[in-house]
Amino acid sequence: MKHARIAYDGAIHQAAAMPGDDSHLRLADGRVLHESEVVWLPPVVPRTVFALGLNYADHAKELAFKAPEEPLVFLKGPNTLIGHRAHTVRPAGVAFMHYECELVVVIGKTARDVPREHAYEYVAGYSVANDYAIRDYLENYYRPNLRVKSRDTCTPIGPWLVDRDDVPEPMNLALRTTVNGRVTQEGSTRDMIFDVPTLIAWFSSFMTLSPGDMILTGTPEGLADTRPGDEVITEIEGIGRLVSTIVAEEPNKEPA
In angstroms, what CA-CA distances link 244 with 83, 164, 210, 227? Predict the structure, then answer.
């Protein structure tokens, strides 16, 4: 099943996709709404958000970096997260801001010292992220700083949380990004350097993962600058189609 969190009529609701029709949602009380009638929220209430750097060999090569020998991880604050069909702000004065289509793994139960062969038992489901990066401030891909990866509104997630059992082959899913309808990025989760079971086993070997924690698993090659007015769609086979629109940063208003 595909689950969503949305705001509608002054309240936050849990919703589900109508069978065979992702453009309509059914609320718990039975009401059916079109996707354009609601405000989409990240499908999971944000907890700890882990993000992988250089987890696709083609992306590492694209950036002229050697593929890492262990996961390269940074954390993201909840201020970065927005939902489907929302606006991402391009900060004023930056020269290069690119998208990153990523498979999101959502932890479903407390995980500590999980063997790789049992890792999927700890997954609640999957979503799509677009983890924008402000390249101007990138000093080292191994340690992206806060100004690169922790900007307000720069990590759309959604639209759906798709149940684990509805994604039988998470390591064989096609990824694609379009900018204004033009395909700019294509790849497959099978090309991850560290796959989902490896990541869960690795994280849980030294810390406890909790329900609702999210792992953003990295992006393949094919990055391009995005500008205000651009519609960016990041899509993962069987998971969903996440739409975001780039808007310009508004100038600071003087206090009254």
Answer: 8, 25, 28, 12
